[in-house]
Amino acid sequence: MTGISPFQVKSFAFEVGFDLCGITTPEPIPRASESFKRWLGLDMHGEMEYLASDPERRTNPAGVMPSVKSIIMLGLNYHSEDSVPAVAELGKVSRYARGKDYHKIIEKKTKRLIRRIRDWVGPDNPCEMRWFVDYGPMLERSYAERAGLGFIGKNSMLISRQFGSWLFLSEILTDLELPPDDRHLVNHGRCGKCTRCVDACPTGAIVADHVVDSRKCISYLTIERPSEIPPELSRKMGNLVFGCDICQEVCPHNGRAVLTRHKDLLPESGVGETIPTREILAMNSRDEFLKLTAGTPLTRTKLDGLKRNAAIVLHNSRSEADS
């Protein structure tokens, strides 16, 4: 006996602010593991070497936490609407990065959830719990799918019936033995014959169903790639200065998306929807960079990366005006 039911775990998850919660088992998912290793073998992870450092650990939760018996998968809706019209020389920021850093928001909610679970089971039933967001060694979308949070679309995003694909995912590994969600009731939707995300991707990064070649993906290029962006790709970035939402914007499942209830994730809490490229290019110090980006996901690129992206957006806007 664990001293706590899945129903109670989910109730606590919703009370602390998560929008989705499901429970699954920690066994490896063979199809996901094979796909991930094949993706690495084709070098589609680009310069994200950390992904290839220990693939066995990433595909087996027991390699992360040997005592694990259950995985609590969590989802947080971050959707916000575009309200600023496209204007030349303004760089567009991906929705997930417009507000405050989601890692810190999820950390606070997760720690509150863990405290509630531990208080419920009591001091006589100590339990081990380890939590991760996207920087953790987990194939989180596959486990979220198995936990019933949604299904993985052709663009490799997890798609929820309630929130579409505008979701942050995180997980808690625990030695509590919790009954998993009934797999017969798991939310396995389908993309069917729809190829809107594939067709809309400017760089052709979605190379097969559920397979994204990071080396072509604008999100990777603007955020994770440390080196210069090849001209044949940079000219397709348009006004995207940090991240890209194109494959999600065209997805029919996102027609049911709802505005996030988490104020810290809204544009007014962070850098906003757009940033003037000239403002970025005028920055000469780390302090100026942090004045704009501190506490937001945009710190990821560092000053040089953001200036590189801004220069591309400015060049693209001028090229469009001249054409």
Strand content: 5-15%
Tally of separate helices: 13
Q: If you compute it from the alpha carbons, what radius of gyration comes out, rounded to the nearest whole angstrom?
A: 20 Å
- Average pLDDT level: 94
Number of E strands: 11
Topology as a string of helices (H) and strands (E): HEHHHEEHEHEEEHEEHHEHEHHH
Write structural notes for this entry.
There is one protein chain. By secondary structure, the chain is an alpha+beta fold. It folds into two domains: 6-79 and 101-185, no CATH class; 196-322, no CATH class. The protein is built from 13 helices and eleven strands. α1 (6-16) packs across α5. It starts with 5 loop residues before the first helix and ends with a helix. The model has no long low-confidence stretch (mean pLDDT 94).
Secondary-structure map:
Blueprint: H1 6-16, E1 20-24, H2 30-41, H3 55-58, H4 61-64, E2 70-77, E3 90-93, H5 102-121, E4 129-132, H6 140-146, E5 151-152, E6 158-159, E7 167-174, H7 196-200, E8 206-208, E9 211-212, H8 218-224, H9 231-234, E10 240-242, H10 246-249, E11 274-276, H11 277-281, H12 286-293, H13 302-322
Helix pairs in contact: 1-5
Summarize the structure.
The chain is α+β, with helices and mostly antiparallel strands and 323 residues long. 35% of the residues lie in helices and 14% in strands. The protein starts with 5 loop residues before the first helix and ends with a helix.
